[in-house]
Amino acid sequence: MFCTCAISNNDLQSSEAAETFILTTPLYYVNAPPHMGSAYTTIAADAIARFQRLLGKKVIFVTGTDEHGEKIAAAAAAAGSTPSDHCDVISQAYRTLWKDLEITYDKFIRTTDPKHEGIVKEFYSRVLAKGDIYRADYEGLYCVNCEEYKDEKELLDNNCCPTHLKPCIERKEDNYFFALSKYQKQLEENLTQNPKFVQPPFRLNEVQSWIKSGLKDFSISRASVDWGIPVPNDNKQTIYVWFDALLGYISALSAENEQPDLQTAVSSGWPASLHLIGKDILRFHAVYWPAMLMSAGLDLPKKVFGHGFLTKDGMKMGKSLGNTLEPNELVHNFGSDAVRYFFLREVEFGSDGDYSEERFINIVNAHLANTIGNLLNRTLGLLKKNCQSTLVVDSAVAAEGNALKDTIEKLVEKARIHYENLSLSSACEAVLEIGNAGNAYMDENAPWTRFKQGGAASEAAAKDLVIILEAMRIVAIALSPVAPSFCWRIYEQLGYSKDHFNTVTWSGTKWGGLKGGQVMAQPKPVFARIENKTELEDEAATKKPVKSKQKKPQAQVAAEA
Question: What's the pLDDT at 169?
């Protein structure tokens, strides 16, 4: 149930020398197959992981599935399945989608793993020994979908949950409680001393508001739920799904051949550098989880980042509205690079973002097929025609005293800073600006005209091609966290091997990589332009009486300029 993916960049430095960077996605709830919200979080996490690997850090990227609780037992029953079989199917669906989206996770943890259960029980016992767990009756309004008791003041009309828009139910139980209120002052002090603990800043304001309004102890067991980890010394109750699932971030760090042991798992790299989550589960990660760790005497994660929600055509997505966005379908129709690039470029990370198919197609065509792909194709075409696909001089020599080199170096540094700050959209924009600068340089210098002039003009034109191709090499590295396969195809066109691409680091963005005498590959488009429905219908109309059978957007090969 643990899955480890070997990442070659992690081998660049020994584990002793490299700084460890642990980042996590939520452990996704398996009541239903993966949706676009889950995919968005994971795509963003993967881009961050890939960037950190480029910096030479030892990355441990944790994801997985949360498989206990009342909602999962109900979903399994509705499907005519057992909870265990249901979890197996949905957990595998996540891993299949992550493979299709080129997610390079290092650890995949399932909360039904026996090792996880052992660590949860040990953690529970440690908190119990601290005196922070007690037994009491509780009566309140419970949202089954949130797996959480709700305060009446946060509910909508008819006691509806503001997230799921369904009425909460009255429930009374004899449960075990965690003394959250005991840690109110410590939580406040943590946020005061470490204001970057919760990001973006406006999420920090939300968390501070929750804490200042007064924290209440919360139930950490359920008497009415059989599908869960039994409470130590009380098999009539199971551990609350969130108290269980949050510990997956630690249990995932255990090696496969290790006995379940909390301290051994913690010593494998904890604390996490970054928890990446949706804003709807911010309270669990920024309030409950830190208090639990304080109680157990463990370090807090360094940062919790809560991103926004996705909408479609300006409307909230939902099955009842018939406007859900299916990630498997998107990847099948457009490919992983297009999906990854659009959501990371077009959604300001941290804020809500909107998807429309027309905008999706326009953005990826304009940026990947045209700005970057077409520039590479044009340049290689001219190099083949005039220089036998061979670079005439080192890129460092070609760019001596050239303003484009200075511009690109500044943009690369800008992209690095944006990646570091989790400003993924701005990082994409900085890299795209390299492509824009390259296109402007090509149009301004018109090497195709200077080749015809011969002599010194022809020599200058050959140098211009080297300069533009060096810019493309830098783009291939700087954009690789976002669109890895697309960037590999660029690198391949520049005559490099897959092994070379897999071992490249961020230092490779320094100007001067291409050398005189290097032979480029034969030019071919690196990104297939997507034709939208309107274009296909217009094309069909001009070719009457032949009718187009195309109903879905299809990828078309980009024409050479």
Answer: 82
DSSP string, 3-64: -----GGGGGS-TTTSPEEEEEEEEEETTS---HHHHHHHHHHHHHHHHHHHTT-EEEEEEE
Residue 230 backbone zone (phi > 0: left; psi -120 to 50: alpha; other: beta): beta
Taking the C-alpha atoms of residue 549 and residue 307, their distance in angstroms, rounded to an integer, is 40
Pairwise CA distance, residues 485 & 337, whole Å: 7
At 556 the pLDDT is 36
Residue with tokens 């890895």: 484
Distance CA 350, CA 307 (A): 4
Q: Going by DSSP bridges, is the β-strand pair 230-231/234-239 parallel, antiparallel, or unpaired?
A: antiparallel
Architecture of the domain defined by 365-519: Orthogonal Bundle (1.10)
Other C-beta atoms closer than 10 Å to the C-beta of 184 total 16
How many other CB atoms are there within 10 angstroms of residue 266's CB atom? 17
Residues of the chain below pLDDT 50: 1-16, 536, 540-542, 544-561
Q: Tell me how far CA of residue 371 lies from CA of 51, 426, 557, in angstroms.
A: 22, 17, 15
d(CA 256, CA 102): 23
Give the right CATH number for 20-312 from 3.40.50.620, 3.40.50.300, 2.30.180.10, 3.20.20.100. 3.40.50.620
What residue spans of 421-480 are helical by DSSP H? 424-445, 447-453, 455-478
State the amino acid at position 541 in one-letter form: A
Q: Where in the chain is the domain with CATH 3.40.50.620?
A: 20-312
Residues of the chain with CATH 1.10.730.10: 365-519
What whole-number distance in Å separates Cα of residue 521 and Cα of residue 490?
Answer: 10
The 10 Å CB-count burial string (b at 16+, else e) for 323-356 is eebebbebbebbbbbbbbbbbbbbbebbeebebe
